[in-house]
Amino acid sequence: MRTSSLLIAALTLSTAAACSEPVTSASPDTSAHYVDPLAVPAKPTLDPSHFNSANDCASCHPSHTREWRLSRHAFAMRDPVFRRLVALRNEAKAHTEDGFCTQCHTTIGTRGGDCVEGFTFDTLKPVTLEGVTCEGCHKSTEVVRTYNAGHKVDGKAALGATLPDPAANAFHESRTAPHLASADFCGSCHDVVETSGLPLERPHAEWRTSPARDKGQTCQDCHMPSRTGPAAVGGASRQLHSHLFVGVETQVGGGANLSAQDKAEVNGAIEKLLGSAADLSLSVSQSAATAQQLDVVLTVTNRIAGHNFPTGSTFLRQVWVALTVTDAAGETVYATGDLDANGDLRDHWSELDPYGDSDLISLSSRFVDAQGNRTLFTWEAVEHTSDAVEPLRDRTWTLFVPVPAKAVGPLKVQAKLRFRAYGPFLLRLLGLANLVSGFPIWDIDTADATVQLTP
Ligand code: HEC
Ligand code: HEC
Ligand code: HEC
Ligand code: HEC
Ligand code: HEC
């Protein structure tokens, strides 16, 4: 009954739910201006003019450059949601922490004195706007901590990776940099801690205690799958690493201009990754009596050995189970995880039916502010509660579905495990309603069953 096929459905939304372990914030930083000597220095520690653009790599590394341009890394400083949130945060913090949000989205611009107090995106240097660009990674020299841009970068360093005996070339020196092949390197940006001390994103912390780590599997193994081919035009055949950095999101807005073919390639990679992420199973009795209740047991299994499902920016993402029960006359007997007319889940954030879906099963995480109210903003949050499933573990819910006396058998029970990068309510809140259609719902797994009715 379960199909492993992944479908992109048309539209909308998400979230709220159950059991959790709250992570409370540590000691708040109360200094007037936020400074971190490594990642958000008070004075520039890098010279942006020492860094080449990705455009300079294309002639010799066309496939790496093409893939990187399609990746989220290339978009880290142009993403419209990022820009809106940064503007809100910088204003809320009276411009005392303007380098905080940019420290990982552009190490070069933040350490190079470009993202200073009161900066505006439009006037930043081209290399800063390249976001997580080639030389930001390939001129890194050492990981010193696995959160908040915790690696050193040296503008005069040779370009590092792990090719055995790299051929000489006229453009750059090469350097063996084993740390680039480590999960710690990815973790140095992918684990995010707010200035309040509240952990926001922690795929690397999750990986550290995961089965993947035990078997030596890194982030690169899943997010940079390898193939063979020349590392540079005309070079020998090598073990290469995909620079699509496949995740869950396509480029949308902010000047993104993907050809239909590129879009299909990125979407195909996302579909494949998400399809490997988790399974949904459904168990229900074969028959039920009208005017009684039907017990529907749903289980979500995280198939990822390396981290929770979901992971990363789980407070922005929507991950949920949609269940509908219809009778033979086509009447909807029951629904949860369905969308309101705005395309939003009927949860806390729904404008049309807030908390209308009391059975909603959501795996997203949520923030609470100092007054105990829900918030979407990291800088207002004092508590972060996750409902994610741990690596290779599962979680089960039982829904009690009342079967109306007039229902006509048999009943069709259909469940979907759904994922969406952003709910429409968030995009509307940020003034980006025009982007809603760019964030489709992915059906990660589906399951269904038929139930005979006895009077
Ligand atoms: C420690 C490094 C780091 C810091 C600091 C950081 N980010 Fe990010 N940000 C990331 C990483 C890594 C991702 C990708 C995670 C994912 O997709 O789940 C990301 C993703 C995002 C996204 C999603 C982009 C998209 O479209 O996929 C937004 C929006 C965002 N960050 C906003 C912010 C804001 C606002 C701040 C400041 C409060 C901030 N970030 C600070 C590393 C960081
Ligand atoms: C004139 C051609 C040329 C240009 C331009 C060029 N490279 Fe290279 N690069 C090479 C060659 C050749 C190799 C070695 C390939 C091999 O041995 O298979 C190489 C190797 C590398 C390696 C592997 C180093 C190692 O030790 O494992 C990295 C990383 C790299 N280049 C990054 C870049 C980046 C980033 C740019 C742009 C800023 C760039 N290259 C521009 C020709 C070039
Ligand atoms: C065993 C394969 C595997 C490993 C190892 C792995 N990932 Fe993932 N990752 C996935 C899959 C599958 C997804 C899609 C499902 C999800 O979002 O959880 C994903 C999603 C992500 C996302 C996007 C989350 C979002 O919703 O925005 C980020 C960011 C990420 N991984 C970072 C990492 C980092 C960092 C590491 C190493 C510390 C890592 N991953 C290791 C398989 C893996
Ligand atoms: C987010 C960090 C990051 C960015 C950005 C990045 N790379 Fe890489 N690159 C890596 C990692 C990690 C490896 C593989 C290291 C390993 O496992 O051996 C790699 C490997 C390479 C190699 C060696 C061949 C291979 O595939 O292993 C080349 C060449 C290269 N990158 C070029 C580029 C170019 C050109 C760009 C920009 C257009 C770029 N990289 C952007 C992280 C990055
Ligand atoms: C310099 C900081 C930095 C480093 C190092 C880094 N990343 Fe990222 N990564 C980011 C940021 C910032 C984003 C979010 C960009 C956006 O969506 O706007 C991101 C996004 C991603 C995504 C896309 C997630 C999604 O939502 O689709 C994946 C996958 C990813 N990174 C994998 C990796 C892997 C694997 C490594 C290690 C080889 C790595 N990253 C190293 C900063 C970094």
Word description of this protein:
There is one protein chain. This protein has helices spanning 62-70, 80-92, 102-105, 107-111, 126-129, 134-138, 183-190, 203-208, 211-214, 219-223, 260-275, 424-429; strands spanning 7-9, 21-24, 140-143, 151-153, 159-161, 174-176, 192-193, 199-201, 226-230, 237-241, 278-284, 287-289, 293-302, 318-326, 332-336, 361-362, 366-369, 374-375, 381-386, 394-402, 411-420, 441-454. It has 455 residues and is of the alpha+beta class. It has two domains: 7-19 and 278-454, Sandwich (Immunoglobulin-like), CATH 2.60.40.10; 27-271, no CATH class. The strands form seven sheets. Strands 1, 12, 14, 15, 16, 21 and 22 form a seven-stranded mixed beta sheet that branches. A hairpin with a 6-residue loop joins strand 9 (226-230) and strand 10 (237-241). The two termini are 26 Å apart. Bound molecules: heme C (HEC) (5 copies). One heme C is lined by residues 183, 186-187, 190, 203-204, 207, 212, 217, 219, 221-223, 247-248, 273-274, 276-277, 304-307, 309-313, 317.
Indicate the topology:
Elements (H helix, E strand, L loop, with lengths): L6 E3 L11 E4 L37 H9 L9 H13 L9 H4 L1 H5 L14 H4 L4 H5 L1 E4 L7 E3 L5 E3 L12 E3 L6 H8 L1 E2 L5 E3 L1 H6 L2 H4 L4 H5 L2 E5 L6 E5 L18 H16 L2 E7 L2 E3 L3 E10 L15 E9 L5 E5 L24 E2 L3 E4 L4 E2 L5 E6 L7 E9 L8 E10 L3 H6 L11 E14 L1
Parallel strand pairs: 5-6, 12-22
Antiparallel strand pairs: 1-22, 2-19, 3-4, 7-8, 9-10, 11-13, 13-20, 14-15, 14-16, 14-21, 17-18, 17-19, 21-22
